Each structure stands twice: as structure tokens, then as C-alpha cells.
């Protein structure tokens, strides 16, 4: 008979969860033994935030949850930052958190903590396994919860004795999955009336509406009615580039976002909400739309955007019409100084077909990404939760999910230091990832936010000491080499483009340090 840990792993795989990003400890040794299962891919990560970020990246590309293995409450706490990001991106995830056996907990050992209390604010479902015989039921329920739309965070706490005891005959619940519903016809008819009115209208697409059939259908609506299509500044995953329906990105900065939205009389949302400022700024609004703009929800978070857009196209009489499509903009290899324009030109020229682009470049990316719309078709992944240190782990999981595609991860030097351990996992697994570190030796974004928040025009010496990261200067190429990843440093647009192009011919990971002065 199987023990609880073996039953847990078998039930995960039976329910479509086929990878575990793990950072195990003593209490998880039986689960670790159970991972010696040919049906389950286990991946060692050297920090729990890499585990949870990689699980997020896996889901974004697969639409299927991954599992993580975390060591007790402190291990879960180390992973919470990227669990937060995954939750905001509606990524499904099954977190297995080890725990002391019940007989040991009464002695209050050093690693005792309130695991449920840590997990609950960032989980949709939390359960502590009560016995080995309930493991199959608990695991199947966790998988079903994580697989819902939108994706959910499920956390299963595994006491040691439930892992090593006999699990008996597995019993699992039935009928836990449900189809995504279509939106209400009345909502569809209301939006059709708005679009027929000719008043300036913006459709804002989110979650699964930004790719696949839903994106194509949105292009039909735009071509047939003249409405514009947009996305929030940060989106879980967008299919973009030549041959795909283009989405305009609502600017991040409050004044720019207000200017972008000021002339729209109507905003229609699909699997997202109306645009909101990322932070509260003195004297500036939280909501970015103009006074008098009406917001209409076409497709709710849990509904099917493709079905909703099909209904809208029927209501508008546009069935069979051609969608709006982005043309290919051929970009010549750039030369000269590195700036947002030359960086975008290098990306557009070097990105291969069907690349995955994970963006955590913050200051650099805010100005760059809008200039790459005409690149070859690719997927763009953003950080919707705002907690930095997501980029390299998410790229790790995305590349695990799609090993036949090159993944590019653009990240600022400040953000990269949070979870740079990702490089070690990328090297160990031979993942096709190009990590691009934009090294300006500072938290440049905070300099701008210092002024935006009204704290002063320029930070003083003590404030600057909390923003600059140049004493000592980080050697990114040496750090990458120490973890088995070859690297190169560039300081001009021509060399940056060449390094990117060379990386597309590599089988495994590499790093490009882009020196910004």
C-alpha cells in the first residue's frame, strides 16, 4: 500500500499537476522520496521565492497548475512574495507545505508557526491534512481549486505523520470542475448599443482575453466598430507582435494614464477592472478615467471571454469579418548609445518567432515595450502584483513549460538581486533563457517616485544611500558564471543586439549585463 506522500504525488499527477518546484526540509523527506516517480518532474530551487515564481510562470504558459514543496511556515513565508504576484495574475498553484507531526507539535519545537495564518491571506483554499487516508481527497480538491478560472492558490499543509503513514485505498471527490460561463445577454446587448452609438469607446482586455481566440475576436469588434483595444499596464500574458491583434498599453504614470483615457466616453472591461493608479499620490486621483466616463463590464473574471465576444459579434452583425492585425515592422540592427528607443530596436530585431518575453525591467521597460509592437510574434508576461523579484523565477517556469521556445527575461539590477538563485536552476535544467540585466547601479524607479510622491525634488544623501546600489558594484557576469550560466557585458546598442542574437542560437541559459550610464 502507498503512504500519504506517495498517494499525494500520484493524485497530483492524476489531476494534471505534473511538475513540482521544490525546496525541501526534514519534515518533507517522505514527500521527497515520493517524488522519485517517473510521472512527476521535480525541480530543485535554491530559494522558496524561486519555487513559487516558477510555478506562476508554468501556469501562465500552460494554463495548468504546478505544485511547490515548501518547508514549514518559514519556507512558506519565503515564498509569499511570488505567491502574491501569482494571485494577482490569476495563476493556479498547489502549494504543499510540510508540517511537524501532531504528536510533536505539542512540544512547541523551534520551527512551529501558524502556517494557516501565513497562508490564508494569499490563498483561496487552505487545508491541513488530518490523516493519511484523507490525502487523496484533499489533494484532488486542491488541484480542482487551483484549476478553476480564474486560477486559484491552493495550500495543502502536510504533517509528517500523514506523509509516512499508510494511506489506504484512495478516495477522491467527483464533479469538481465546471465550464466557464458565458456573460449575461443583457450585458452583451448593452455593450453592443454603446458600440453602435459611435461614441469613443475603449475595450480593456485582461487575463485570458489577451490571447488566443478571444484576442482575435476582439480584433473583429475593433475593425468593425472603430473602438480601440487596450490592456492594463501590467497583464499576466499577452500574445502580441506581427500577425496578432494589437492592444494599446494604458500608461503607468497617473498623468499619462489620464491623458490616454480622457477622450473615451465608455470603457468596456473583459476579465479585468477599470484602470487604477498603482499607488496613491498626493493631489492625484486613484481612478484614471475622465469624469463622466461610463464603465461597462462585458465579461466578468470567471466568465469566458471568447463566448462573450462571439455573442457581441452576433449582436453587432459582424460574424465572419476580418480582425484588426498588427503589421510586421522590420527593425534594423541598432548602433550607438543605449536608450529606450535603441533597446526596443534591438529587441524587435533580435526576438525570434514565438519567443517568450518576461518583463521586470521597470524604469527601462516602461518606455521600451510600447515600441516593440511590430516585432515577430511573441508572448509578453508582466508582473501584476508589483512585488519585485518575480522576473527570473517566472522565466524559469515559463521555459520549463515551453522548452522549445526561447525565453527572454528583462530585469533591473535591483529586482534581480531578490531571486538571482533562479540562474542556478536554469543552468541545472539547461533551460533556454536569456536573462538581460539592465544595470544602472540604483533603484532608478525610486528616484522618480521620490519626486512623484512630493518628498522633494532630489533625495538627500541619506535617502540616496537607500536608493543607490553602487558600493560595491555588482559583477553580474561573475555571479552568473558562479551559478553555471555564461555571461557577457555590453554598453552600446550594437553589442546588445549582437549578444541577443547570439543567445538565440544557444541551447541553454545565458546572461547579458547591459551597462546603463
TrEMBL record:
Start and end residues of each Thiamine pyrophosphate enzyme N-terminal TPP-binding domain: 3-106
Alphabetical GO biological process terms: small molecule metabolic process
Tagged with keyword Transmembrane: no
SUPFAM superfamilies in alphabetical order: Thiamin diphosphate-binding fold (THDP-binding) (SSF52518)
Alphabetical keyword list: Thiamine pyrophosphate
Family in the record: Belongs to the TPP enzyme family.
Stated name of the protein: Acetolactate synthase large subunit
Organism per entry: Novosphingobium pentaromativorans
Amino acid at each position: 500500500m502507498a503512504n500519504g506522500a506517495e498517494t499525494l504525488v500520484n493524485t497530483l499527477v492524476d489531476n494534471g499537476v505534473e511538475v513540482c518546484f521544490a525546496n525541501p526540509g526534514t519534515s518533507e523527506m517522505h514527500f521527497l522520496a515520493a517524488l522519485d516517480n517517473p510521472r512527476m518532474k521535480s525541480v530543485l530551487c535554491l530559494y522558496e521565492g524561486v519555487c513559487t515564481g516558477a510555478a506562476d510562470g508554468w501556469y501562465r504558459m500552460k494554463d495548468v497548475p504546478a505544485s511547490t514543496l515548501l518547508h514549514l511556515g518559514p519556507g512558506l513565508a519565503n515564498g509569499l512574495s511570488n505567491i502574491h504576484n501569482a494571485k494577482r495574475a490569476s495563476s493556479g498553484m498547489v502549494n504543499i507545505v510540510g508540517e511537524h507531526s501532531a504528536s510533536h507539535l505539542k512540544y512547541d519545537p523551534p520551527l512551529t508557526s501558524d502556517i494557516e495564518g501565513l497562508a490564508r491571506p494569499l490563498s483561496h483554499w487552505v487545508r491541513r491534512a488530518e490523516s493519511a487516508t484523507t490525502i487523496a481527497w484533499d489533494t484532488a480538491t486542491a488541484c480542482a481549486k487551483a484549476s478553476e478560472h480564474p486560477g486559484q492558490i491552493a495550500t495543502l499543509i502536510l504533517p509528517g505523520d500523514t506523509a509516512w503513514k499508510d494511506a489506504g485505498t484512495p478516495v477522491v471527490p467527483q464533479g469538481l470542475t465546471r465550464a466557464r460561463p458565458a456573460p449575461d445577454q443583457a450585458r452583451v446587448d448593452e455593450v453592443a448599443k454603446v458600440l453602435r452609438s459611435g461614441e469613443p469607446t475603449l475595450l480593456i482586455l485582461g487575463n485570458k482575453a489577451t490571447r488566443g481566440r478571444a484576442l482575435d475576436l476582439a480584433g473583429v469588434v475593433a475593425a468593425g466598430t472603430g473602438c480601440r483595444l487596450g490592456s492594463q499596464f501590467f497583464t499576466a500574458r499577452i500574445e502580441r507582435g506581427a500577425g496578432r491583434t494589437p492592444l494599446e498599453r494604458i500608461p503607468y504614470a497617473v498623468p499619462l494614464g489620464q491623458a490616454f483615457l480622457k477622450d473615451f466616453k465608455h470603457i468596456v472591461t473583459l476579465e479585468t477592472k477599470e484602470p487604477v493608479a498603482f499607488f496613491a499620490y498626493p493631489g492625484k486621483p486613484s481612478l484614471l478615467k475622465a469624469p463622466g466616463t461610463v464603465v461597462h463590464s462585458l465579461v466578468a473574471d470567471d466568465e469566458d471571454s471568447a463566448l462573450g465576444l462571439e455573442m457581441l459579434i452576433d449582436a453587432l452583425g459582424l460574424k465572419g469579418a476580418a480582425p484588426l492585425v498588427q503589421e510586421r515592422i522590420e527593425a534594423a540592427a541598432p548602433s550607438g548609445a543605449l536608450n529606450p528607443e535603441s533597446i526596443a530596436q534591438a529587441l524587435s530585431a533580435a526576438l525570434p518567432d514565438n519567443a517568450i518575453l518576461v518583463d521586470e525591467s521597470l524604469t527601462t521597460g516602461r518606455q521600451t515595450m510600447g515600441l516593440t509592437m511590430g516585432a515577430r510574434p511573441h508572448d509578453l508576461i508582466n508582473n501584476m502584483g508589483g512585488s519585485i523579484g518575480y522576473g527570473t523565477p517566472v522565466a524559469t517556469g515559463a521555459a520549463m513549460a515551453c522548452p522549445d521556445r526561447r525565453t527572454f527575461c528583462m530585469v533591473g539590477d535591483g529586482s534581480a538581486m531578490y531571486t538571482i538563485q533562479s540562474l542556478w536552476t536554469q543552468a541545472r535544467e539547461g533551460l533556454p533563457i536569456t536573462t538581460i540585466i539592465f544595470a544602472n547601479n540604483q533603484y532608478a524607479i525610486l528616484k522618480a517616485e521620490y519626486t512623484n510622491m512630493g518628498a522633494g525634488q532630489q533625495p538627500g544623501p541619506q535617502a540616496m544611500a537607500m536608493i543607490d546600489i553602487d558600493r560595491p558594484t555588482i559583477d553580474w557576469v561573475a555571479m552568473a558564471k558562479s551559478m553555471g550560466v555564461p555571461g557577457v557585458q555590453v554598453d552600446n546598442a550594437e553589442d546588445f543586439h549582437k549578444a541577443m542574437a547570439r543567445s538565440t542560437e544557444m541551447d541553454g541559459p545565458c546572461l547579458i549585463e547591459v551597462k546603463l550610464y
